[in-house]
Task: inverse folding
């Protein structure tokens, strides 16, 4: 069996796949790769299905040694150096790594999260059908640490040939425009509050992780000042706590929340926040259709 020996885990490296959707009633969030486009592209490049597990590497610093045979890999997501036995290798492209060689993902130069995909995917014990790391609930594989031996699965799909990758749209933009729909609790905000929400150029703060990204700007004016009973939340929901400053939920969001959700961001657009560094500019493009509960 081919394995990856973790020589250095980097700041925070997680095993992520397509997640475990449909379990909110059990209090379990879907989790999974935050930058789903980068995760799926990496899998395509090495001939895996989109459900195959990859390594989500925050900022960089990951070093892994290949054991048990040669291995095809691809690195996608944030920009930064990639090397194999100290020799530079190409990003967004299949790279053949020989038995015993060390793969190193250097520190990012743009963005936040990089994805190391290996042909056959990472394997291990599944919780509710998924390997996705969910440290909050103790599900999936744990946070990667030095000395771990990560098993690699059996290769199945066809590797993309030259020119088959198609256009890669970069998530690494100076200003993010996030498409969304109003509701379910936009009526808890005044007309001026809703207008301020769409007019403002918000900024991502340093309080941003896989649970949610807190934004800085002018607080939103509320129409309803009372308490809200806890209700269901989803990935991309924009919750506004007592501070009046929005939080956009990510893949590890809670399944319920007690603050009003002013709108819900389109799934692929919500994923753009996976690469948003503190200070990143964010604007919301909110359409008229509303999200309804029940």
Result:
């Amino acid at each position: 069996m081919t394995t990856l020996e973790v020589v250095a885990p980097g700041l925070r490296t997680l095993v992520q796949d397509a997640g475990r959707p449909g379990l909110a009633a059990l209090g379990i969030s879907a989790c999974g790769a935050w930058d789903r486009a980068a995760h799926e592209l990496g899998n395509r490049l090495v001939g895996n299905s989109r459900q195959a597990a990859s390594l989500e590497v925050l900022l960089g610093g990951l070093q892994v040694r290949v054991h048990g045979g040669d291995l095809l890999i691809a690195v996608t997501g944030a920009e930064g150096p990639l090397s194999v036995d100290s020799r530079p290798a190409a990003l967004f492209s299949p790279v053949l790594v020989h038995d015993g060689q060390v793969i190193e993902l250097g520190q990012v130069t743009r963005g936040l999260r990089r994805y190391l995909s290996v042909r056959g995917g990472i394997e291990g014990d599944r919780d509710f059908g998924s390997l996705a790391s969910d440290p909050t609930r103790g599900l999936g594989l744990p946070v990667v640490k030095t000395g771990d031996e990560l098993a690699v699965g059996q290769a199945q799909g066809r590797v993309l040939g030259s020119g088959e990758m198609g256009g890669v749209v970069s998530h690494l933009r100076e200003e993010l425009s996030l498409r969304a729909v109003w509701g379910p609790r936009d009526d808890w905000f005044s007309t001026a509050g809703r207008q301020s929400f769409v007019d403002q150029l918000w900024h991502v703060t340093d309080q941003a992780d896989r649970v949610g990204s807190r934004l800085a700007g002018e607080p939103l004016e509320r129409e309803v000042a009372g308490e809200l009973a806890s209700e269901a939340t989803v990935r991309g929901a924009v919750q506004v706590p007592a501070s009046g400053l929005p939080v956009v939920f990510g893949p590890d969001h809670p399944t319920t929340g007690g603050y009003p959700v002013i709108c819900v961001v389109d799934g692929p657009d919500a994923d753009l926040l996976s690469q948003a560094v503190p200070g990143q500019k964010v604007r919301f493009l909110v359409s008229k259709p509303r999200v309804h509960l029940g």
Observations:
- The chain is about 10% helix and 35% strand.
- The CA atoms of residues 199 and 283 lie 8 Å apart.
- The chain has a mean pLDDT of 92.
- The longest helix spans residues 36-45.
